[in-house]
Write a structure and sequence with these properties.
Length: 429
């Protein structure tokens, strides 16, 4: 049945949607950290819709509230509703410390790209500038503004030029560079400083600096301590907003509510999406109160606040708190990384194991230490044939990306990681 649906999709859907076809499965149902396909096969899900299902597939505590809301009032434009205001208040409780009690929230449409577009407009509007600074290896979305921030990929070229004033600085990538963490941080900050105009005036009109606290699509790249704080200091010195993109790292994924919490840094602007709606479409941007200069109607749209998704969002935050899922993610993530590091110690094709919480990357390399995308493709196929779904990413498509639901049990994780380890051993033997 799966094959039939995959073939049918190929026949009738846009070719742009056909990227997961190297995992030719059609899913029928999900529960917790498991998925079932249309043929009745069960899978352990280690990608959770790329970090969307943090409280698991079809979490009853979430769906109960969302369903009730769907039956009562799904859509109400930007008029106030209780679910809407309750979500803003709940987000305030878990906001990065410097934004707590000092923020505004703008809701977007369903995608992270929507939220990132809002951040671009907000930063430009507040500074009166149009220069955008982002990083190599970054991903911020695929609508025109967000795509401008996204680093060069083969998909971007046909659409350039996008926004004219975008520069990409170096992002510290410890595994790929033979330098100390301090040196990497210094080099990256130096480039940002040049762009901000100090030495060469490379960008005379910066509107902001956009950064992922840990790069996701770029290969789960964890920057050394000091990088985010250094950016915070530079943004303060040059009086431009720091925009920390929490679309993928947010909502508890890394064992803290937000990636920036790991570095004790408060962003000025923070786009959120993916797990925000717990599987229902919802994005939003939180920003500091002093940037709330938009006049009423200054940034609007028809679908900026889907009440069932807002109910789902509040419920998922409650669920994470009630079940101590941040702590669970921290412990389970460490356990998974420990096991994979044992493999790294004996298998030269495992170049690096990294991440925070349940945001984990395993970089695969060839015998010369170079990126090994074919190996990754092999491993991924062996995994799914044995009932484990992992994601792929990285600048060279050679990083196994693990983003299981935060509700995954230790037993499920152990089983899945054993299958992943076997797959790597088999593919490299
Ligand atoms: N920002 C980051 C950091 C992301 O990882 C993504 C999606 N992978 C986006 C923005 C864009 O989100 P969406 O795909 O929902 O538009």
């Amino acid at each position: 049945k799966s094959r039939r649906l995959v073939r049918k999709q190929r026949d009738i859907e846009s070719s742009a949607a056909l990227y997961p076809t190297d995992i030719p499965i059609a899913f029928e149902a999900g529960r917790g950290a498991t998925l079932k396909d249309v043929d009745g096969n069960l899978y352990l899900d280690f990608f959770a819709g790329i970090g969307v299902l943090n409280v698991g597939h079809a979490n009853p505590y979430v769906t109960e509230a969302a369903t009730e809301q769907l039956e009562t009032l799904p859509h109400s434009l930007d008029f106030p509703t209780e679910p809407r205001l309750e979500l803003i208040e709940t987000l305030d409780e878990i906001a990065p410390p410097g934004l707590r009690g000092n923020n505004r929230v703008n809701f977007g449409g369903p995608t992270g790209s929507d939220a990132v577009e809002a951040t671009i407009k907000l930063a430009k509007y507040n500074t009166g500038n149009d220069g955008l600074i982002a990083f190599r290896g970054s991903f911020h979305g695929e609508t025109s503004g967000a795509f401008s921030l996204t680093a060069d990929t083969k998909y971007k070229k046909p659409y350039t030029p996008l926004l004219p004033e975008v520069q990409h600085a170096r992002y510290p990538y410890p595994f790929r560079e033979d330098r100390s963490d301090d040196e990497l941080v210094e080099l990256a900050l130096e480039e940002v400083k040049e762009l901000l105009g100090d030495r060469y005036g490379a960008m005379s009109n910066p509107a902001g600096v956009w950064v992922e606290p840990i790069q996701g699509e770029g290969g789960t790249v964890v920057p050394p301590n000091g990088f985010l704080q250094g950016l915070r200091d530079l943004c303060d010195d040059y009086d431009v907003p720091l925009i920390v993109d929490e679309v993928q790292t947010g909502m508890g994924r890394t064992g803290e509510w937000w990636g920036s919490n790991h570095y004790d840094v408060t962003p000025d602007i923070m786009p959120m999406a993916k797990a925000l709606g717990s599987g229902l479409p919802l994005s939003g941007t939180m920003y500091s109160e002093e940037l709330d200069t938009w006049e009423p109607g200054g940034h609007t749209g028809t679908f900026r606040g889907f009440n069932p998704a807002m109910r789902a969002s509040v419920r998922s935050i409650e669920y994470i708190r009630h079940h101590d899922l941040l702590e669970h993610a921290t412990k389970l993530g460490a356990r998974i990384r420990d096991r994979l590091r044992e493999l790294e110690a004996t298998n030269p094709h495992v170049g690096d194991v990294r991440g925070k919480g349940l945001f984990i990357g395993v970089e695969l390399v060839d015998e010369d230490g170079k990126p090994a995308p074919e190996l990754l493709a092999d491993v991924r196929t062996t995994c799914y044939e044995n009932g484990v779904l992992v994601w792929a990413g990285g600048r060279d498509d050679n990083v196994v990306r693990l983003l299981p639901p935060l509700v995954m049990t230790e037993e499920q994780a152990d089983t899945g990681i054993s299958i992943l380890i076997d797959a790597i051993e088999t593919s490299t033997s």
